[in-house]
Amino acid sequence: MHTKNIYIKTWGCQMNEYDSSMIVTLLQKKNKYLFTKSAENADILILNTCSIREKAQEKVFHQLGRWKKLKNNNPQVIIAVGGCVATQEGKEIFKRANYVDIIFGTQTLHRLPNMISEVEKKRKLSIDISFPKLEKFKYSLEPKKKGYTADISIMEGCNKYCSFCVVPYTRGNEISRPCDDVLFEISILAKQGVREINLLGQNVNAYQGPTFNGKICYFSELIRLVAEIDGIDRIRFTTSNPLEFTDDIIEVYQDTPKLASFLHLPVQSGSNKILNLMKRSYTIEDYQSIVKKLIIARPNIQISSDFIVGFPGESEIDFQQTMSFIKNINFDMSFSFIYSNRPGTPASQMEDYLDIKEKKRRLYLLQNLINIQTMLWSRKMFGSVQSILVEGVSDKNIMHLYGRTENNRIVTFEGSPKMIGEFVDVKIEKIHTHSLKGKLF
Ligand code: SAH
Ligand code: F3S
Question: Which residues are annotated as a binding site for [4Fe-4S] cluster?
């Protein structure tokens, strides 16, 4: 049988990365495909896209423009576009780039192998951006370890409809995977040597997975069940939402040491006026109260966040409130963005009068403050002993290994390759902003 080369490019969040790895596994199962690292010698080009900000969306059409040239040289080439941009734009993609052959959605990626066969036979646009609930997971095959940490999707979609965000439209409503499927997948990975699990979803704390006996497993219970799995010694999750961050989840920090002392909890703004316009449905006081309780449950917890600057109506005072809030919570390593107007969202109808220069100034000031705080958090680690999950040999020095601390810092240190895949204790001896150097303890 003639094998075909596939090249896949992925943009976006961890959910998109997860989806792409599912696509690779599904297509590899059909023995006729090989994955290649170069687009130039591929027969099938797949773009798994992100539309969270305008820049990400525009990148898609630039990339397609480049691939068009490859198709001009070889008209047999098949181009598939999937993910959030594809779900949102649908046929519009074909109108703007009529050399595209396949448009698949975030929930229909499992149909891609059939769509490819159809195009091979008929050479006609194949499009499916429907939302069959959780169907894609039925096609996911036995999970295979890629490293010592693994991402596991536990839920899809989002019901929150924040006024600026496209996710509810591109990924559909919240739906949780059955609890037993999640645990089964993790146990298989644990047997293969995976030691750290990252539970994925847009709002993992809204997880409500059905169980085999007709009950519902909530997020706090799921974490405890994952912690019971032999071999899994560190648990993370991303992303959670201040809404539904209930006391039972905070209690898990108290009694489950395997849950990392690091939490990414997006706040977006430190101004209640802006939070209200964003339809975030919580106040900064609610957020503060969660953090207070978390610190009681886990005194050494570190918190990172997401921020949007320049949201329509954000005044200098609102911005200053965000800056004070960042100091007040003492956030570590956060992600921050200039507000991007997304067509179809309620915020796109709001008047956005702030000029881009001012938005950039605010972003610069905010990122500067966060960087200082990241550095201060890192400095506090000087001389401390950290538990590191050893991930591999350092690229820069083959005598050195690297791994991550609970608070997501990369640490390099001298050690034996036998330690890869194990937790070791390392004393921190040198501090850089985003990485550290240490010595085995
Ligand atoms: N579930 C997460 C958000 C996921 S989207 C939550 O509860 O907040 C990831 C991040 O992208 C968001 O936290 C937000 O900071 C950013 N983002 C989303 N839409 C955006 C937009 N229109 N403009 C700028 N940033 C945006
Ligand atoms: Fe987006 Fe808000 Fe959901 S930011 S992903 S709509 S919680």
Answer: 13, 50, 84, 158, 162, 165
